[in-house]
Amino acid sequence: MVKVAMIGHKDFPSRSGGVEVMVGGLARSLVERGYDVTVYNRGLEKHHNVYDVDGVHARRVFTLQKPALNATIYSFLATFDALFRGYDVLHYHAIGPSVPLLIAKIFGKHTVCTVHGLNWKVDKWRGFGSRERIAAKYADDLVVLSETEWNYFLQKYGRASILIPNAIRFYEKRACSLIREKYGLARGEYILYVGRISPEKGTLDLVEGYRKAKTGKKLVLVGPLDDSEYCRTVQQQAQNDPNIIMTDYLVGDLLKELYSNCGLFVLPSHTEGLSLSLLEALSIGARCLVSDIPENTVVTDIYGAAFKPEDTDDLARALERECAQEYPDAMRQQQIQYIHTNFEYDVMLDRYEEVYHHVVGDPLKAMPSTTLKKKKVPAGAKA
Questions:
Q1: Is the omega angle on the peptide bond into residue 13 within 30 degrees of 0, that is, cis?
Q2: What SS3 class is residue 1?
Q3: For residue 175, what are the CA distances in angstroms to 49, 184, 281?
Q4: Most C-beta atoms within 10 A of its C-beta, which of 114, 154, 243, 381?
Q5: How far are the Cα atoms of 79, 115, 338 from residue 72, in angstroms, in the given order?
Q6: For 67-79, how does the pLDDT look when each residue is reduced to its tens digit (9 = 90+)?
Q7: Cα separation of 105 and 95, whole Å?
Q8: To 5 degrees, how large is the angle CA 67–CA 73–CA 77?
Q9: Rounded to 5 degrees, what are φ and ψ at 186?
Q10: C-alpha dihedral, 271 to 273 to 274 to 278, nearest 10°
Q11: 180-188: long-range contacts (C-beta < 8 A, 24 or more apart)?
Q12: Hey, is 311 helix, strand or coil?
């Protein structure tokens, strides 16, 4: 049995961000396949620091709440704890928390790092280049989510990474019931955003673009509300407009209903890895509008519109245009099939199994190739 420790996410179980969703799904699925998986969560809690969920072992470690130090302190302490627990693989998620993988290597541990985005574009990651260099140079296997990231690491560091796009489990479309009762929302009458309320996600851009646009639809922002200055600014803007609804953190049937019944899903991010919320929206047939960055448009392919990132005037025009147009049902069905074909969950799991067995030197598993080709289905074609 291969023992894997995962370090880098904030909490488990959680949907507070794409990393948390991915780690939670991967950990549970690996346990179902016979792996022994431990996830290291950030921040101690009274009487809740060692526990199991769905067969996944969770361990909380101390960290400071200050954003600049939170991930760094946590990842070092998690690594020191993991060094002496007999794990075969230490799997780091995101560049920021991956710095101590160098220590893990010194102690002879096998390491994997999954890059969830090129965060040197984000102000909060000061000194990001040195962190990125450590992952590129010392991780036994480096996993990326997009061809943009794959090319970046090859060109800058000469490092051939392994491309494993995020994937999702699919669910059935839900009728408009709970959200009508709780938020007064009707099918097709609102614009939806799902994700962190943070600068790199462009949430404030969406609020400003929406307020400039002339549309009769409401705007629903789904994401955890924290005490950051940015989040408070978004909340203040929303409070001045009765047509903007901030739901805070949502999971389960409420979230599924919001995806199923939105008139338009918008992802205004400045930087991405591969957005799970975008995959979820596409998978249920939602009409999608995204910022024109490769990490978004390579996912939407022909099944989404785009606008200039950080340009609220262009976003306003795009909102008006997309909200005014009908989305043919035939195109929705093709879109759903496209996601099923190209983002299959079991394929992602197979690839991660190959990676783990590769780094531990299992001769029975083939070495993973450096790319994973996606089969795209053109409009009108059958998979």
A1: yes
A2: coil
A3: 38, 14, 15
A4: 114
A5: 11, 16, 38
A6: 778 889 999 999 9
A7: 16
A8: 150
A9: -115, 160
A10: -30
A11: 182/254, 183/220, 183/245, 183/247, 185/218, 185/220, 185/245, 185/258, 185/261, 186/261, 187/261, 188/261, 188/262, 188/263
A12: coil
290, β-bridge pairs = 267, 306
Q: What single DSSP character describes residue 119?
A: G
What is the gyration radius of the CA atoms in the chain, in angstroms?
21
- Whole-prediction pTM value? 0.86
92-151 pLDDT, tens digit each: 999 989 999 999 999 999 999 999 987 655 544 455 456 889 999 999 999 999 888 999
| Mode of pairing for the β-strands spanning 50-53 and 56-61 | antiparallel
User: Given the structure tokens 């894997």, which residue do they identify?
Assistant: 4
The CA distance from 220 to 214, in Å, is 16
Q: Which residue has the tokens 């960290």?
A: 63
Q: Residue 340 pLDDT more than 80? A: yes
CA distance 76 to 101: 9
For residue 51, the SS3 value is strand
Q: How far apart are CA 334 and CA 282, in angstroms?
A: 10
